[in-house]
Design goal:
single chain, about 230 residues, mainly alpha, 7 helices, about 0% strand, coiled coil
Length: about 230
Amino acid sequence: MSRLQSLSTPSRRSRASPSPSPAPVSPRPASETSNHRYLRLVLSEIKNVLSTWDDILLQDGLKAGKGCIDEATEMDNILTIEDGPERPRIGPHLEALGEARSGLRATLSKLDKLLLKLSKLIEQAETLLLEAYSKQQGPMWLTWTLEDFVDSIPPLLSSHNGELVELTKISSILLDPSTKFEAARAALERWRDLGKGGERWCAAREWEEMVDLEIGGGEEEKEGHRRRR
């Protein structure tokens, strides 16, 4: 039985991301322009990246990390048993440990690819700003201008990159054969905590809420975010 059952693209400016302002409320555009639609598409893709990051971290990564600890523990227990016909075979656990370690490395690779995708989305948003700046200087939907939206995105890249650095360090602990059980368990708990309330998680949720408020997102989308949290 498992012993763990309880278980960069820089910003163009250094200023903080804008916060929605309740007043004055500018009238919404009578009809969305191509700039509105393109920005909405980019923002939607960014939300998908944030959601996928959460899923990979808490599903793929946590499962692989737990497997690394469980299988290493099982092998340690088997090796304490005197060699003989009654001693369980260690081969299957060794194979499972290899799969868990591969899964953990694959998790980091997936997260790295998401960082690259987020970086490209930032570039697309900045390109839109450069092309539409002279024509799109007023509020897009509520109070944020196109520039406000674009400026709000790069901090997400920084927070996700910072978390990946820490996850890589945690993985090194879990992948090290000399790591003791207690240290490995503490590392896995830290991994889990990052996926449920770390600095990156908080920044992502705050950004999603501000964007939903500014665009006037539907109740279904807001309810989806609440269920995921």
